[in-house]
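Reviewers asked in the last cycle whether our approach scales beyond single polypeptides. To address this, we selected a multi-component target totalling 677 residues and predicted its structure end to end. The input consisted of the following lines:
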Amino acid sequence: MVAEKTRLLNMVQAINEALDLALSRDGRVLVFGEDVGRLGGVFRVTEGLQAKHGESRVFDTPLAESGILGMAIGLAMGGMRPVAEIQFAGFLYPALDQILSHLGRWRHRSRGRVGLPVVVRAPYGGGVHTPEQHADSPEAILAHAPGVKVVIPSSPERAKGLLLSAIEDEDPVFFLEAIKLYRSARAPVPEGYYTLPLGKARVVRQGKAATLIGYGGMVEVMLEAAEVAAREGVEVMVVDLETLVPLDEDTLLEAVRETGRAVVVYEAMRTGGFGAEVAARIAEGAIDHLEAPVLRVAGYDAPYPPFSAIEDLYRPNARRVLAALRKVLTY
Amino acid sequence: MKLKPVAYLEKGEFPLEEGEALRLYRAMRRARFFDEKAVTLQRQGRLGVYPPFMGQEAAQVGVALALGEGDWVVPSYRESAMLLARGLPIHVLILYWRAHPAGWGFPEGVRVVNPYIPIATQIPQAVGLALAGRYRGEDWVVATSIGDGGTSEGDFHEGLNFAAVFQAPVVFLVQNNGYAISVPRAKQMRVDYIARRAEGYGMPGVVVDGNDAFAVYLEAKKAVERARRGEGPTLLEALTYRLAPHTTSDDPTRYRTREEEEAWRRKDPILRLRKALEERGLWDEERERALLEELEEEFARELALADQAPEPRPEEIVEHVYKEMGPDQRRAYEALRRGLHVEEAW
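The resulting structure, written as structure tokens, was:
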């Protein structure tokens, strides 16, 4: 359901609007994390929410990620709907025990009796020259945790609707927001409350020559590459996975079968990254349709570099995507 | 600051009403009965690995009975006595330690959470659960328990700090039984009493003789009342000892002496309380025999119930992962339901 009227908003504003609507709509929703209250978050995503909804609904926590996740679990057990912010996805690691041991397990462990409707929002990814750890993309670690969902929007309009769905969802959802997209562009965002379904991939550009598959901050990179290719007369399809867990394998495989060639793009470390899962799914489900090996364009098998001069080499860009495209097209 | 463990029994004091004291005794004796039966069942191969709590009944039951009906217990894995004292049916506990799915989802109406296997992770969760009560306008208090070894974990510190900052209605019970499996307390920390740490978080810290049911119960009551009045959390350290191994797979003779165990055996919390009751004419051999008969019958009934639980179905592997199955669970579910592995159903 998409409302008629739209305004031009960046992703920060769109997410802020979603949180505001969720807080207004459901008294069980709580927004908390480090600096989210008075400051409005280091990226200002929660700006104004405490002033509007009060300190008991929107509040700062001590600087302790495991404590934040653990408290969120307890709040959800007790019937609340916590939306926790982890300041950067690369700071999730101290909370992994809570995530892997508990957050994703409670429904299963209680035979369906206790579900945890927790949303964890965290900025992720590179492209804006942050210090060490601030540009990590830990989505594959989260996708490997049973019982949680992983959602990564690629535009302001998608972010708002997907976040509202995540908050309504009865299971824990990790909502990763590409830092690069926060303020890079404004786009039309519908007014009012609307949701977009989780677990659906979408084709964001049609083409017959090959399929580019990615999510979050890589969507604009893929679209840029597709644009360049189009100028050379090669039309490629671009698929935004949007939800990594549960994965929309049907849309993914259909998109690959149509072109017979696939390149998966992700900015996390190459080995064991989520793109490896995508490539494996394609091999399992569409091998007969492939005209070339599935290629990955990913980060290097090294920590994400904090130095701006080489950061741009680590993070996939249109040039690297085009190089991979050329390979699968000429195989 | 000098901390001194609160104690009554060794001084011959009897600070409770008779009915309350008897209630404590019966719950402790029942818990011990279960513990002994559980170890036997494990030896017979009718229970999985089991962590006995023998010797810690006063600490666990004392706190459990200090709670009101609407309060919650968020336990660690050694807290079977707490769960039983809160009303968890014995057959459910047996099934839990059989790792049978029917033991995983605790029944409605008993405000206890599954035992936690990872160490200290329950601590910040207990804080969240306590705060949820406040948001909902309910005055439930959460009691959560941890061992001395668990207090070295980061989650213990994060959880206590959160509780103090948000003034959460939580009672943190530390069952200081002297060992983290084999590692003695002295190799875990350089403080004399763990309760001393409470000051560093900004909450009251209390040490009790953990083998003195009166001391645990009365101090826990104070902490529960304080929490319910909105005055925040309390750290309650019970000095105790597990007279049994860490689990049925452990061999404590490798790390502790017979003399040490014997010294603690003389401080057995059940014998101590029984002696106090007998001195006041509230208990005797006959009543003990009657109680044990009652417990024997109850256990037989409950064991039969546990034994009747049907074998888990293969498809339960992928049930309840999400509220609604995703495509991957659905595919596996359909295969398993047909008696196939997912690869066979491709």
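Strands of chain B lie at 72-74, 142-147, 170-176, 179-180, 183-184, 205-209, 234-239. We regard this as preliminary and will revisit it once experimental data from Aim 1 are available.
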